[in-house]
Specification:
21% strand, 5 helices, alpha+beta, two-stranded antiparallel sheet, elongated, four-stranded mixed β-sheet
Length: 210
């Protein structure tokens, strides 16, 4: 026969367990309901889609040492610096593709950043035309793996300048950095210490020997 005090203790513990279970179930239901209310009240936003636009890539060819326009439809951001990075990345994707007319490894990841700065006059003030200088920051991996040679290096540099000018007409000058630092040459030949004029670069590249 079970002692009376053990019977009382058993039923007391059983009652406590049932009460605790009920409290936990109630708390769980309240938390679930609050979660649903939070989801219902959260504003629904459509994902941002970058509109597709026509871009002109001034693609280099080693066959005749020229830079020729190539029109593609690309998703282009409205921010000019981001836009510059996208078009240059696509240009370098062309060069990294199998069978490229101007084979250069690296692709779009080779353009780390593009900064747009106002072109200033002798007095240090921005010129009235609103012309801009693009500072193109290339990765060290791209520069170190670029094929060495005056012709191939110059074609890469001139095609970058011409592509920027074709898509952002205010870009009149281009400077180059590598991993955020000045560099004397791209791969031993093409001068990266100078400022390139985009209009002149496009004219010099079109069908001529660099």
């Amino acid at each position: 026969m079970i002692p009376r005090h053990q019977t009382i203790l058993f039923f007391t513990l059983l009652a406590a367990s049932l009460i605790m279970g009920g409290v936990l179930w109630h708390l769980r239901e309240r938390a679930h309901q609050r979660l649903l209310e939070g989801e219902d009240s959260a504003p629904t936003q459509a994902p941002q889609v970058t509109p597709a636009e026509q871009a002109t890539l001034m693609a280099a060819s080693d066959t005749d040492n020229s830079v020729q326009p190539r029109i593609l439809t690309l998703p282009l951001p409205q921010n000019p610096e981001a836009r510059s990075r996208v078009v240059l990345g696509k240009l370098l994707d062309l060069y990294a593709a199998p069978g490229a007319a101007h084979p250069v490894p690296g692709g779009s990841g080779s353009v780390a950043q593009v900064f747009l700065l106002p072109v200033t006059g002798a007095d240090g003030k921005p010129v009235s035309s609103g012309a801009q200088m693009a500072v193109v920051n290339l990765t060290g991996a791209f520069a170190n793996s670029h094929p060495s040679g005056l012709q191939t290096e110059t074609l890469t540099v001139l095609s970058i300048c011409a592509t920027l000018n074709a898509n952002l007409q205010k870009v009149a000058q281009v400077r180059f950095l590598v991993d955020g630092e000045p560099r004397a040459t791209l791969a031993g030949h093409a001068d990266l210490s100078r400022t390139y004029l985009t209009a002149g670069s496009a004219a010099d590249a079109g069908g001529t020997h660099p």
